[in-house]
Amino acid sequence: MDAFPERWYYSDMSTRTEIPAFQLYGEHIAFPDILHMEQIRDRAAGFDWIIKPHRHTHIFQLFMLFSGDLTFQLDGGCIPIAPPVALGVPPGSAHGFRFSSDTEGWVISLPCQHYPDLFGSEAELAKPLSAPLITTPPQSMDKVVAALFTTWQGNSVFRRTQLRCQLGLILSELVGAAPTTEGAPARPDARIARFQALIGAQAVNHWPISAYAEALGLSERTLGRLCKTHTGLGARDMIEAHLMHEASRLLAYTQMSAQSVAHALGFDDASYFSRRFRRFSGLSPSAYRRKLEHPVLQRSETLRTGDRGHQTDLA
Fold it and tell me: For residue 74, what is the DSSP state?
């Protein structure tokens, strides 16, 4: 693993070909849970063990791979890797894989806005998790991840707290074990970071694109080009995704009514907000909250019907 930075190379891949932005790989519908876990074989085998380059705008993904072989692509770089390995992919990073058919492991997908204790600006792990993570996991990590999966499948009254604690321990141990390198990929364009900060401050005020562009000293066209290049989404889509992810957070972690959530996010018409949320997530606000209240029923129903589109965000 220590040789990894020396063999890494970069190119401006995203300017030559459009990298799609997904919830889970190949899926656009948001998943109504605070995380998703899936075995690599369950997702990759259906794509002939090839996950083409793509990105997620609001999701951190952790790949825990314990056997097999793979080629990992990240932001234009490509390198063969032999497990065991832990790979952390922050939001916005274009990534893809070619797995051998005997690969065993997990992918864990985390909507960042649901984890301010891990990804928030004041979180201890926020800075190291904002860059790609590549490290060898401790020998016992396979059992720790299996225990996380058991909790995720369960329906404990303290399920969310247990998941958060387990994830915090896993990520802090992996970050602590990761070698420090000088070959990390370059950070995204600073203008995108500034735009995202403005979205966080002004989305509820429903600023027009022209106001964001003026605040950034850019034309609307330049702003749109930057957004598409670095996130795979247009500027309006980035704002919409922020609002709807914030709506999902409020629905998941507060007792606010859908009407109150709408007003908190600057929507005067709760019905209009509900239509927007349904278009984004595939569910009405009330249906989204019901699925959160019955995670076991949701997963068993998904497995029975084979409809993965309403569940998650992988690869």
Answer: E
Please name the residue that has the structure tokens 């590549």. Answer: 134
93 close to 111: Cβ distance less than 8 angstroms: no
Give pLDDT tens digits for 29-46: 555 678 889 999 988 888
Residue 39 near residue 255 (C-beta atoms within 8 A): no
Q: pLDDT band for position 307 (50/70/90)?
A: very low
The sign of the torsion formed by the CA atoms of 119, 122, 128, 132 equals positive
- What CA–CA distances, in Å, run from 281 to 27, 207, 278, 286? 11, 22, 5, 12
Is domain 190-305 classified as CATH 1.10.10.60? yes
**Residue 245, Cβ neighbours under 10 Å: how many?**
20
| Each residue's pLDDT tens digit, 128-152 | 888 888 899 988 899 999 999 999 9
**Domain extent listing, the chain:** 4-177, 190-305
Long-range contacts of 172-178 (CB under 8 A, 24+ apart): 172/124, 172/125, 173/138, 173/141, 174/62, 174/86, 174/88, 174/133, 174/135, 174/137, 174/141, 175/125, 175/128, 175/129, 175/133, 177/135, 177/136, 177/137, 177/138, 178/128, 178/133, 178/134, 178/135
Distance from C-alpha of 191 to C-alpha of 208, rounded to nearest angstrom: 17
Which tens digits make up the pLDDT trace of 47-86? 888 888 888 878 899 999 999 988 888 876 777 888 999 9
The winner for highest mean pLDDT among 103-107, 130-134, 176-180 is 103-107
Both ends of the chain: CA-CA distance in Å?
A: 21
Taken in order 226, 228, 230, 236, is the CA torsion positive or negative? positive
Class in CATH terms, 4-177: mainly beta
Q: Which one has a higher pLDDT value, 275 or 312?
A: 275
**Cα angle at 124 between 119 and 130, to 5 degrees?**
45
